[in-house]
Amino acid sequence: xxxxxxxxxxxxxxxxxxxxxxxREYLNSQAREFSSGKFNSEVSIEIEFQSGSIxxxxxxxxLLLTIDLVSRYGSFRSGIDYIIEDSKxxxxxxxxxxxxxxxxxxDRIIRMERRxxxxxxxxxxxxxxxxxxxxxxxxxxxxxxxxxIRNEIDTISKQIDTEQERNSITTELINEITGSFPKxxxxxxxxxxxxxxxxxxxxxxxSKEGGLLPHQELAVLRREDEIEPDFQINTKKLRRKIR
Length: 243
Fold this sequence. Notes:
Layout: E1 2-11, H1 17-35, E2 41-50, E3 53-62, H2 66-73, H3 76-102, E4 109-115, H4 117-134, H5 139-158, H6 163-180, H7 186-200, E5 218-221, H8 235-241
Helix pairs in contact: 1-3, 1-8, 2-3, 3-4, 4-5, 4-6, 5-6, 5-7, 6-7
């Protein structure tokens, strides 16, 4: 399991606990609706209240298996590209619907982001393969790039929870790069050894480290102080959308 998509919203709001509760239910409902049919996955929501503002992360957590990507989209690369497009659409729907349904004014929006999770990192790594194929590097320079690729594959591997999924993705990435540079026959074994070593020392990420435990459906953190609510979210409209 890994992060397939993430929507980040930072709002300059100090809502009531009741408003936060409705907002949580609304986001959970909308996220499940928008992700159904696109991702064979779970939806997790994290809402943090901090210093008079709220930070919202809506995650799509799912499996990225090479065999599924190839069977559904024709190739590994095409599968990653399609998932990224679906991730962008997912975040777009979440952001647009939330602003429309909650009546939150524009000046209360601090930041909104569409984050592409592990598929985005894989896409960037594949693009680096393509740039490397077009370059004219000597063996020393190529080995330096190989080290960077090792580190990137290691980083991606650590964000994938299941061994089957991790092996599937890392093997495909190794095939991509070694297939492009067949004369460097040692590259495959060096990459494979590094990936295998990193998987044995891997630990499950916590939400504080930027990851999300697979079973973590929801976390709502609110600072307990004497700040009074300063904005009334249109909970009537939100409730009508909760399914």
